[in-house]
Design a protein that fits this description.
By secondary structure, the chain is α/β, with parallel strands linked by helices. The chain is built from 10 helices and 14 strands.
């Protein structure tokens, strides 16, 4: 009877959750709940928003059909114990040292041993893509998300690779040195905001506005996307070769502007003789929801459980 799991994606300003068929990864659309969340609110208010969304989704089935709840959760977070350690990242900081597992379980009326499981959000996105998305059928894939931050994960045979010589430390790249800072400084929306302001003296809200200017013929905006693609290909190329990835799947809000940096990204890969397939996610936000729900597939859980402490 326990055919469904709740997959949950915790974004910077919202929560999205849905029932997922854990046999085939399909999203039960009628169960989708999306609620805005004030990430600077009190712990109680944040958790109330999360609980409201979860209850709405769970109400679509009988409790005896529910195998558990999975969370795609940003870090820093203790993914084994379900404890938040958000600090220094300007969101959800009032949840610091809060046991999310216990509070969610209690609020939803679950027994003490009811499965509520957690995984890094970028890893959940990659797992979802490897299960039923663009990376399905590939032995080795890299998934990246481009938006307010730079998310990434390396996947082999459906599982994240976190601690091996052919991948970066922690199995992600946002923290790695690049040029005058770290990768996250160059492959996130704030790079576009800062760079456009440096070139023009104009302050824009985000990469979306820079893309709109580029499409209108703004040469400064166009050149920024060309530079972005060159930088991204240059940076990722070393890890593509090291890991032997067959495909890169790109998600995040910035994929809407992909045509503006696709040519320079491909050129950068070609210069390094990287014949890597690059695809945009079609699952989009669903990928993280689906990936988090897969934590309730017991055979998958037994394989990924030992890796949680390294996320």
């Amino acid at each position: 009877m326990k055919k469904f799991a709740v997959g949950t994606d915790i974004g910077g300003s919202h929560i999205s959750c849905a029932l997922i068929d854990i046999e085939n990864g399909s999203v039960q659309r009628e169960s989708l709940s999306e609620f805005p969340v004030n990430n600077k609110a009190s712990a109680d208010d944040i958790l109330k928003s999360w609980i409201t969304a979860l209850k709405k989704t769970i109400s679509k089935i009988q409790r005896n059909q529910l195998s558990g709840v999975g969370f795609a959760m940003p870090g820093p977070f203790d993914y084994e114990k379900g404890i938040a350690f958000f600090k220094g990242n300007d969101k959800y900081e009032n949840l610091y040292n809060v046991n999310i597992y216990k509070l969610i379980s209690s609020a939803l009326g679950f027994s003490d041993n009811f499965p509520i499981r957690f995984m890094n959000d970028a890893t959940a996105f990659a797992v979802g893509e490897a299960w039923i998305g663009k990376a399905a059928g590939h032995k080795k894939s890299i998934a990246i998300t481009l938006g307010t931050g730079f998310g990434s994960a390396f996947i082999e045979l459906g599982l994240p690779v976190l601690d091996r010589k052919d991948v970066p430390k922690l199995g992600c790249v946002w923290h790695l040195p690049y040029k005058e800072g770290i990768a996250d400084d160059y492959f996130s929306t704030r790079w576009f905001i800062k760079s456009y302001a440096t070139k023009t003296g104009k302050s824009l809200a985000g990469a979306k506005e820079v893309a709109e200017f580029a499409l209108q013929g703004d040469i400064n905006a166009k050149n920024l996307f060309i530079e972005f693609g060159n930088n991204l290909g240059e940076f990722l190329g070393t890890w593509v070769k090291s890991f032997g990835a067959e495909i890169i799947v790109i998600g995040g809000n910035m994929i809407k502007a992909f045509d503006l940096f696709k040519p320079s990204l491909q050129t950068a890969f070609e210069k390094q003789k990287n014949n890597i397939e690059v695809q945009l996610s079609e699952l989009k936000e669903d990928a993280a929801i689906i990936g988090s729900a897969r934590l309730l597939d017991n055979s998958f859980w037994e394989k990924i459980k030992p890796l949680l402490s390294k996320m």
